[in-house]
TrEMBL record:
One of its GO terms (molecular function) is metalloendopeptidase activity. The keyword Nucleus does not apply. The chain holds residues 295 to 749 of 772 of the full protein. One of its GO terms (biological process) is proteolysis. Keywords: Hydrolase, Membrane, Protease, Transit peptide, Transmembrane, Transmembrane helix. This is AAA+ ATPase domain-containing protein. It comes from Selaginella moellendorffii (Spikemoss). One of its GO terms (cellular component) is chloroplast.
Length: 455
């Protein structure tokens, strides 16, 4: 696709591009008419000339409103994927910085990158983090937010790129956005993404089941019926957990019962320590603990805020949340060489932990997802340096990187067995570990590399 072909060139200067966002509308299910509205946006890209000749106004900004996990990010990626244009993403929470002027300069570089690589979709998650009504926020933080917001307005009001760069923003709080943002010519199209209906839930379950070894005659309707009120992210999670359960039982096919059990455990995604089976909680705890332990040894990855195995709305599985959350879009904001390698190593930690704790033949799908992320990151890393490489060469080079990072993860985790065990026990006992406690445990138990004195 066009996006794929352009990525090599763009990545060299790119901080915000997500080169692996190869999502199509067929990956997004259960949204009925909303998909049609977004197909129109794709049309603006693919038939820009036609719209201009007719004198139709091409939208600058689209606001996707809805609760976490309903598919806003996925839809934005699909618009870019279908139009074959580049995709740039950032979370507005990353605009709100401690240092004055940093937010505004991030907005500028985001848009300058997008313009250089137009046509493009710019995706801004959590728009309300920067677009809150001005004046509501007191103190210097508020002032910084104003300068960032003003810069964003300037960029939206645009320049040559108009019609070539469309911004899609997501928020769950359209009600608190600064009115300047939703004026004509800015985010003047608002699309509500509701939670899926019964039919929608069935379709979403089916889309996610496609990549899993499902048995014959699965009763998706039954699963749809007991998952009322859940968002797409939770439904995707149910399918994952069901597949994991089948695998752990040594079965080759996922059954309706696996899905029903996973759905019951999901329970509206409310935080509750006891809704997951012990087995699943242990798998997740080892995954999160190994990643966090590994990250403690990586200068670019260490700013862990919270790790948890408690399911929350919109969160998949357990999670380790980093301060700037570089993993949210599947790419690293900082592309220093070491940062990239650290990112890959952290993603390989769950697989290495599987091998060390459970034996080499125990493959959890949870770890496979991380390995996928690592492999993609390794490929982007290789391509970033040499956009002209052939795919086979990229794969060979990426594989070498994966292997050396994996070796590093194995070596480090072996050395830190008791540290990881402490993290696992704490997670199983309490569900979550917040930063202060994590730092304390690092201090007490971690055996870091020499170059790292303290986290
Ligand atoms: P949001 O941006 O609204 O918080 P995301 O787009 O990040 O939600 O959704 C998280 C994940 O949940 C997606 O990557 C996808 O796996 C799944 N998901 C959510 N909504 C849908 C949907 N309508 N169809 C298929 N998968 C979905």
């Amino acid at each position: 696709s066009g996006a794929k072909m352009r990525q090599g060139r763009a990545l060299r200067s790119g901080k915000y591009m997500d080169p692996e966002a190869d999502v199509k509308f067929s990956d997004v299910a259960g949204l009925g008419n909303i998909r049609v509205e977004l197909e129109e946006i794709v049309d603006f890209f693919t038939h820009a000339e036609k719209f201009r000749r007719r004198g139709s106004r091409i939208p600058t900004g689209i606001l996707l409103c809805g609760e976490p996990g309903v598919g806003k990010t996925l839809l934005a990626k699909a618009v870019a994927g279908e139009a074959g244009v580049n995709f740039f993403a950032i979370s507005a929470s990353q605009f709100v910085e401690i240092y004055v002027g940093v937010g505004a300069s991030r907005v500028r570089s985001l848009y300058s990158e997008a313009n250089q690589n137009a046509p493009a979709v710019v995706f801004i998650d959590e728009l309300d983090a920067v677009g809150r009504t001005r004046g509501l926020t007191a103190g210097s933080g508020g002032q910084e937010r104003d300068s960032t917001l003003n810069q964003l307005l300037t960029c939206l009001d645009g320049f040559e790129g108009k019609g070539q760069v469309i911004t899609i923003a997501a928020t769950n709080r359209p009600d608190i956005l600064d009115p300047a943002l939703v004026r004509p010519g800015r985010f003047d199209r608002k699309i509500y993404i509701p939670k899926p209906s019964l039919q929608g839930r069935i379709e979403i379950l089916q889309v996610h089941a496609k990549s899993k070894p499902m048995g014959e005659g699965i009763d998706y309707r039954a699963v749809g019926q007991i998952t009322a009120g859940m968002a797409g992210a939770q439904l995707a999670h149910i399918v994952d957990v069901a597949a994991l359960a089948a695998l752990r039982d040594g079965r080759t096919e996922v059954t309706t019962d696996d899905l029903l059990e996973a759905a019951q455990n999901e329970e509206g995604g409310q935080p509750d320590l006891h809704i997951r089976s012990d087995r699943v909680r242990r798998i997740l705890a080892l995954q999160e603990a190994s990643m966090a332990a590994m990250a403690a040894n990586c200068p670019d990855m260490e700013d862990i805020q919270l790790m948890s195995i408690v399911p929350r709305m919109g969160e998949e599985k357990g999670f380790v949340r980093f301060k700037a959350d570089p993993l949210k879009f599947g790419y690293l904001e900082s592309i220093s060489r070491q940062g990239f390698l650290d990112h890959i190593t952290v993603q390989l930690a769950p697989r290495a932990a599987d091998e060390l704790w459970n034996g080499a033949d125990q493959i959890s799908t949870v770890a496979s997802d991380n390995v996928d992320i690592a492999r993609k990151a390794a490929r982007s890393f290789v391509r970033a340096g040499h956009s002209d490489r052939k795919d086979e060469d990229v794969d060979v080079e990426a594989q070498k990187i994966l292997e050396s990072c994996y070796a590093r993860a194995l070596e480090y985790l072996e050395r830190n067995r008791s540290f990881v065990n402490v993290l696992v026990d704490r997670l199983l006992e309490k569900g979550s570990i917040w930063r202060p406690e994590f730092l304390q445990l690092v201090e007490q138990y971690a055996v870091l590399d020499k170059r790292r004195s303290s986290p």
